[in-house]
Amino acid sequence: MAEPSLARLSALFFGFLLLLATYSWVPGLHSGYLSGTGVRKTLGPDLKLRVDHSSAKPHHPLDPLTVQEIERVRAILLDHEPGFGSGSATIHSMALDEPDKKRVVKWKKGNRLPSRRAEVLALSSGQSHVIIVDLDSGRVVSDVVNPTSGYPILTMDDLIVASQVALKSIEFNRSVEARGVKLSDLVALPTFTGWFGPEEEGRRILKVQCFTSQDTPNYFMRPIEGLYATVDMDKLEVIKIVDKGMVPIPKAAGTEYRYNVQNKPVHMDRINPISIEQPEGPSFLVEDGHLVKWANWVFHVKADHRAGMIISQATVRDSETEKPNSQILMFTNVERTGEPRSVMYKGFPSELFVPYMDPGELWYYKSYLDAGEIGLGPAAMPLVPLNACPRNAYYIDGVFASPDGKAIVQPNMICLFERYAGDVSWRHSEILIPSADIRESRPKVTLVARMATSVGNYDYTFDWEFQTDGLIRVTVAASGMLMVKGTPYENVDDLGDKQDESGPLISENVIGVVHDHFITFHLDMDIDGPMNNSFDKVHPEKQRVPTGKSPRKSYLKVKKYVAKTEKDAQIKLSLYDPYEFHVVNPNRKSRLGNPAGYRIIPGGNAVSLLDHDDPPQIRGAFSNNQIWVTRYNRSEQFAGGVLVYQSHGDDTLQVWSDRDRSIENNDIVLWYTLGFHHIPCQEDYPVMPTVAASFELKPANFFESNPVIGVAPIFEKDLPVCRPFASS
């Protein structure tokens, strides 16, 4: 029997992590405006700055753990029971245990940093540990064992070991070879099991399914259907093999997606290369690696093991007292006399829920909670310059801990760039006064913070886009490969009345299984301060005009309702019963007496149609509503709970909200779930074109008037003159 290739998973799934794990630090590549010492440096698009992470230090209370700090946490844990010194305990995630919110809000640059602490999720002898390590005192200050059901986030080692255990099974290998697949072409991919009861109870398990990479790197399109192995991760043994018999393996032809090896003709005219040039360089400033200043915005950005990217302490300057100049980038050199006003303390994707709609034995368990089960940070590959991020982008690395506590660096994980796509900030042309020659229009230039993560077959891109009018747009874009199912059928005409209930035929022998995507965002809105916010439901209500009072028969009247408790703020969106939803500070009034606020504007959305007693929906109960508001609690960060893998759903946003705490005039957190149902089609094969969903956070009586009314337009003299080279 041929020796199976045990490195296949690491090479094809998250192999990049293994490469990084061999280094104590990896230099990041940066371009843009940098400031670490108060001196602004301009770097052109072809220049690179090497960042020595081995000597980096924190400058802000919310800065992520540095390489030195991660190594110090590791050293402290080596002397801590249970089992770190002996190697029997493993670290599953390590992140900054953020200081108390009040201390962070009061902190000013130049002040001493609050005590630095690390939160470590670890596993030892089948027990989950939530450990707090104080870096200042050099000791473990808290070690809570099994605080809820579930296990810590999986590590890359878990995935590799599960594959190795399955591939050591003679019975499993015989089933693979019986299908004509060489073990050297085999890709054994562990999949997450969810929680359905007795089989998962009291032990950590992974299910291993297989694909073949023969003649293609796109093994996801060549599933070995009808076969999987269940691996007990505590005993490192196969406890179950399911073999439902032979199903034709889809062909390799047509699955290639790499540009340099494709030979498929593209029937379209060539699109010339395009780039937005900034002859004076980008107008944003990054201080100390994480504090971003652009136009009228200031915010903190960092990479995170679980959330991927976190935006914190977003403030916008009230432009009523600002003096914008005529630069193209609007507020480039503005005299910063306006008041910086708090908008959001912290925002990030809290959880992703992706349930597949096939109840059969080989598929029922496929309902993923990606942030809590594998983490968006470790799966974030380096962004591709000029294709994933434009010229003059600034790149930020991620720094994480490996299972043995050593620091690894994900280079170029986040990028910052300015975007201009011909969009209009505001405009008006006067047509009703013939003698007036009024044509006013302003360009919309925005700043984007981007992170992309490759969670197995799917790639998600997260954009936080800041506008000078105070709006924040959050977009999630999905691409990558479908999770497909093998079938004996090659044409829909062959199906007759046997059409597969799990999804449509998208290629010969390939079923695209129907599934959902739900992404829940944690949005700690602090409108003009953290302690005095409320949640208003603004309702347009139809009124009937009394007979004889007007030629009209009906009209809309707006009524406002203040949510008193958390259950008042469990919102299901409806086109036929519309509301606006505002987070307001009732203690900060405009000159007209309106409370300062921001409203959340949903984009296209979907709702989960699963029954609430369905095990995947119990764990993904945060998708039961599109909007929630909870009272701030620093332990309630992730909508699926602290320990998500094989959790029972006992520590979710639904559970917290059902406590029905008071939220009026308080420190509150807004949660928003965006989603879409995905019914695959042929165009999704072999790689899916990007589909995106978004929402907006928009000022509502926050400013006294349009904050960008005085911004100058662009004139020809502001732009560089580009001419072709003279011919020789």
Characterise the protein shown here.
The protein is mainly beta and 728 residues long. It has a domain at 350-393 and 423-718: Copper amine oxidase, catalytic domain (Beta-galactosidase, Chain A, domain 5). It is 9% helix and 36% strand. The strands form six sheets. Strands 1, 2, 11, 12, 13, 14, 15, 16, 27, 32 and 33 form an eleven-stranded mixed β-sheet that branches. The protein has a ten-stranded antiparallel β-sheet with strand order 17-18-21-22-23-34-31-30-28-29. Strand 21 and strand 22 (458-466) form a beta hairpin.
Which residues form runs of ≥5 with pLDDT under 50? 1-48, 321-336
What is the subunit arrangement here? single chain
Nearest-integer average pLDDT = 89
> Any idea of the CATH topology of the domain at 350-393 and 423-718?
Beta-galactosidase, Chain A, domain 5
| CATH class membership of the domain at 350-393 and 423-718 | Mainly Beta
Largest sheet report: 11 strands, mixed
Beginning-to-end CA distance, first to last residue: 67 Å
Q: What portion of the residues fall into strands of 2 or more residues?
A: 35-45%
Assign a percent range to the helix content: under 10%
Shape category: globular
CATH architectural type of the domain at 350-393 and 423-718: Distorted Sandwich
Q: Helix- and strand-based class?
A: mainly beta
**Radius of gyration of CA atoms, rounded to a whole number:** 27 Å
The total beta strand count reads 34
Number of helices: 10
Protein name: Amine oxidase
Domain Copper amine oxidase catalytic: 275-708
Cofactor: Cu cation
GO molecular function: copper ion binding; primary methylamine oxidase activity; quinone binding
